[in-house]
Amino acid sequence: MSVAPSTLDINELFDVSSQVEAEDSTIEVPNGELPRKKQKGNGQIKDIKDVEIPPLPEVARQDLIARNYQIELFEKAKKDNVIAVLDTGSGKTFIAVMLIKEIAAEERLLRMQRRETKLTFFLVNLVPLVFQQANVIKANCDLKVKHFCGEMGVDLWSEKEWRNNFENYDVLVMTAQIFLNILRHGFISLSQVNLLVFDECHHTSKKHPYNLIMREFYDRCPEESKPKIFGMTASPVNTRSALHAARYSEFIAGTYIALLVNQPGSPRKFGHLEHNLNARVFTASDTDEVCKFVSRPDEIAIKYDTPPRYPSTELYKKLREEYLNVEKFNRALTSAQQALQALGPWCSDRVWKYILDEMREKCEGKLSPELCAESQEEERLVRKAMDIVNDWNFQSPKREQEVLSPKVIQLINILKCFKNQTDNFCGIVFVERRHTANVLHLLIKEIEELYFIKPGVLVGHGSHEEGDLQMKFKEQNKTISAFRDGRINLLIATNVAEEGLDIQPCNVVIRFDFFNTLRAYIQSRGRARRKDSKYIVMIENNNFKEYGILREMKQAEKDMKDWCQMLPEDRKLPDFNIERENGGGFTCNLSLPNNAPIRLVSSEVSPSRSNAKKAAAFKACLQLYEKKALNDHLLPEIEWIEEDHEMTKPVKDEFGLVEGARKSKREYHLKNPDLWNNDEDMPSIPDKIYVTVLKLELEDEKYDGQYYRTMCLLTRKQLPEVPLITLYFHGVAKVLNVLPYSVPISIESEDLEIIFKFTLRTFTSITNKEFVCEFEKFTYLVAPLVRNAPINENFFDYIDWEGMRRAVTEKHLPIDLDNISDLEDAVIIDYSDNLRRYFVQTICYDLNPLSPIPDGMAIREVGCQNFAEFYKKHFDLELKHAEQPLLHVRKISKVMNFLQPVPGSLPIQKGRTATYVIPEFCKQYSIRASVFRSALMLPAIFTRLDSQLLALELRTRFDIPIRDDLLLEAITTPSANMEMNYERLETLGDSFLKFCVTNRLYVMFPDKHEGQLHCQRIRIICNRQLYRGARKLQLYEYITSSPFNRRAWRPANMLANIDDADMLEQKKVHELADKTLADVVEAMLGAAYMSGQVDAALKCAIALEIQMEDITKWNDFHANNKNRPRVNAKALERVNVERIEEICGHNFKNKTLIVEALTHASLPNSATPCYQRLEFLGDAVLDFMVVKYLFEKYPDGEPGIMTDLKDAAVNNQVLGAICERINLHKHIIHFSSKLTGGITEFVNAVNELREKNEAVGEYWSELDVPKVMSDVVESMMGAIFVDSEFDPAALQDVFDKWIKPILTVHVTPETLKVHPVKKLTEYMQKEGCFELLLRNHTSEESDTQKCTIFIHETAVAHASSTNIRSARKLAAQEILDKIDNDPKFLEKICTCSTLTRSDSLFNDDEDEVLLY
């Protein structure tokens, strides 16, 4: 037929010679020609002349409600193994869901009778179907359903991981290959399965996983244990031979279904499928009912003329001339020639653009001009070809046979026929090759007459051959989504769209390339499911070519590749080198990656290449198994991954608390210092006693105009040397010297008893609580020295015996008005006003009771004529001595927290508090004011002494070389509100712990890659492990965690009269978070390092039982270094050793370390390992050196600032900037043009900032820094450390040369940029709220990424950006802005119950009656 395109209408297009078909559908196909009758309606045949294209209606989705034919098949499936053959869209999956629910119900009953449990497996052929079918099952039953696909890493799961899934789910949806793998690895057997559902079961043949499951496992399963089989398909015939065996007319008419109606079995041609699945084929008995729900398309065959033999195009000739002998271009040239003959010259030339784009993408990550002349030449050729194509003068397409093939012209004619149905047009054009799809897509967009078509391309993932166009899974989903919502109305697709994918029903399906299997015919036809839809098959006159290529991967080879996937980034597929032997046969040498346990395996002589390859792979598997690189299931040994996976999971103890977490708090026993415990062999009343002088460093013993006495501490045992104690007087620091004397003094029991009574009296007076203690059981006593007593060996002669006797014999003394000067160092008691106690400030000889009230003073007497009138009016007291001077007084505050550096509030002068008092209405307290003031400090002093003594005991117990003051700091928590806490030391110790453990792992495990070492390190240094160790060592007994509390303070071995059993028990325990114990361990390591550098810190780590096997001193790291040479000396040719040593300022003994440290994982077929192990070491080295630097530079830096500075000083951005500054990036050995481009872009950006004088502060923070640049800085640090035999001094030299100059200028508290997320998190923690959640939203529909932040389940901020990091940053900043604008923002949302510390806890001033 030859028709001018401009005059062709729809009837002419479909007009072919007709031949009437008999009513029984037994048309023969004479001479290979197609029948000239076409289908009308559902399975009927009509003349082409009568075909019309009606308007294309919308399709309504049907709810999943069981239909009669579904129930019919369901009932059959309950009794037998069934293969359900129904058209696409007829609801086969719903039958499977009903069967799954039925089997699940039976399983629940059977579990009451038998111990084992059985599962249902739903197997699919394509990954997208995993999610699609799992969602259908979940939506229609209440069973626990889980989906599995390769991207979840299931190939490397352990038996434990699979067992957890088997125990927690009822239905498992997965690809058949995954199920086959877990059967082969022995993770499950078919006896544990109650139902196997095979989706698209027509694939069950030959070596498809469906068939392998049946042959390898089902056939061998005992009959009584075999699971039920349910298969689903629309095309039970899946072979080319079956296609030839059946008459073509049967396929066109869809009469194979009729052959099955009411038959218990199936036609002979379906026997292989029944045999393979051990099931019988069934279909609906009432086909009319099926037709109600499944619309069959009108099937139309359109012929096109055989294309002429096109001569090669000029573009093809030019490219062929350039690249004929370049192997990389072989496939591209072949593809272009195929396109020429099938599609015509115009399409052939256009296909080059797609081919070369793909070749360019494949080149990325492989090419580096500095490395390989061959690679450089290949890259040059690709770019040259792209230049030729880009510069070529392409002509617009014309519907002429010289430009487009007859087949393409006919396709354009077909599509034109639908221009009047554009509103509801929805079609698919099926092609065989990917490049055909892309070129047709371009052509349709350029044909003006097809303006109404919005085309899209849907192709598979492609192969890895050069020139093969690929489409990623994510792009597939985007295309399908666009097709579903109408943004695309014509898909040009390969067979990926034939089955499985959730593509909406179409009203036009065109087979541009002829199907070569019955499955392809039925599946593609099933896409035309709308009412009155058209299924058009384009057929070349007299040409029935068949296509198909089968490729099989050998199992042993697959196992080998699976194992290699466990290697780090430098992993590569095994290299099989097959050689022909002189005596006949073949041998295979298998080369494995450099860091594999085995490097080379050679096979025995085999009769064929294939057998030699298998033999080598099998032999390698055996050796890997012997090396324990493969486990008993012949899977890669992934113990380290399991450990890492488990360590990240919260583990709860028997009380339900997550081990190692900050929120997990427990009560622990609090140790009493041994010094305060009276030994049984001690005399009850000692005749000798040890004295310690407590001397406050004050000039003339005065502070703020008030006197303070020096006190003595008397103990049964000698007090050891302890650090100075800093006391705080409303924020002003004063030093207390603790001066123990080693020689005890003799003392009479009478004198000792006076001191004992004075001690009780003093403690009672300052706390207003009566203490009880037997004289024979006292632990320590206190006694004052006289004012300005000298501190020497005769200090005992200066004890204020007179003051103590007065204190224990008298309570309140009358005031002698004739000797009023005696009150200068007195505590007076106002008998007129509730026995209030006051310190006498001054004796006011210029004022008397009749003096007028001074102006401008807010005192209680305001409003009265004089002081006497106030006493008369308020207390009804008559004045007797009008000339007596007034006393200017200050109310005595209760015991203050002298250990708190933050000043507490001053005593509030309440309305009744006196400023002046009349002496005759007062009495004098029996304890002098200077003694009383010093006594008020005693609870704080003893609290600190308790902590110091526990620190000394801890140091002695573990024999750890830590300074006393640093150890005390290390065991003091922030919650104690002292002037020091462990936070700074914890930061240093955390870094040293990582540093030390990393050193050991590096030297002791030379065959483990960075990923394995990282996971082992996590297991050793994680909070959970540190917590467990601290708990085992009972470190909790020594920790100071509670703030000073005057109400709770008790002298050692003394009880207050108000104490009950609960109070006594509470005093013996304290509450600690698990993480606090972990923090203390790290702080002790930091304290040890500050005390004695790495040797002391290592000794401390060993004492705290941190895993350091075979390491007892620092030199052991070098002595135990098991790393064998990993680099061939020839590899040094790749680097400029002299220049690298100049950059490092270090002369390498082992220069091959330079090559390893600079080699990136992209280098192919390299005997040199990549830098990852050295980077792992260098990361810890650098982290420690930076923290050490910060400690030295900012000795008083707050922990929060130190953490922020560390984060700013150790990250990919700053290290990349350092790499650029020292020009190390120029020496990286890699094989990736992407890296070249990324490095160049970063360097140019930095230079531009310098030119603009904008390279200030953290100028790198907003730049895109290639990670390789930061990696090599760390790996070179690691290399220098190893080469220097693990000498920290060598590290310091390179740190001072590389890192310190950048940090000194660019990373300071003034230049610091705190990330909003970090700032928000710290703010929330400070406020006591831990209900902060950041939720990321990634969209496959667009490039926009979103973040929503929740506080207590309330969404409080939303942000979007092109990447998730920016979105998180914007969302966090939004909340910070809200907090700045509204300080009560968090209060309105947060419902956490937090304990707000109040100064009143330490310095309250409420009224109370003086009891003692």
How would you describe what is shown here?
There is one protein chain. This protein has 1412 residues and is an alpha/beta fold. The chain has 8 domains: 68-294, P-loop containing nucleotide triphosphate hydrolases (Rossmann fold, 3-Layer(aba) Sandwich), CATH 3.40.50; 310-398, no CATH class; 555-637, Dicer dimerisation domain (Double Stranded RNA Binding Domain); 684-810, no CATH class; 812-925, paz domain (Beta Complex), CATH 2.170.260.10; 949-1118, Orthogonal Bundle (Ribonuclease iii, N-terminal Endonuclease Domain, Chain A); 1125-1306, Orthogonal Bundle (Ribonuclease iii, N-terminal Endonuclease Domain, Chain A), CATH 1.10.1520.10; 1316-1389, Double Stranded RNA Binding Domain, CATH 3.30.160.400. It is built from 47 helices and 39 strands. A 7-stranded parallel sheet has the order 5-6-4-7-8-3-9. A hairpin with a 3-residue loop joins strand 1 (37-40) and strand 2 (44-47). The radius of gyration is 44 Å and the shape is elongated. The model is unreliable at 1-64, 239-269, 365-372, 463-470, 546-573, 639-648 and 1393-1412 (pLDDT under 50). InterPro entries: DEAD/DEAH_box_helicase_dom (IPR011545), Dicer_dimer_sf (IPR038248), Dicer_dimerisation (IPR005034), Helicase_ATP-bd (IPR014001), Helicase_C-like (IPR001650), P-loop_NTPase (IPR027417), PAZ_dom (IPR003100), RNase_III_dom (IPR000999).
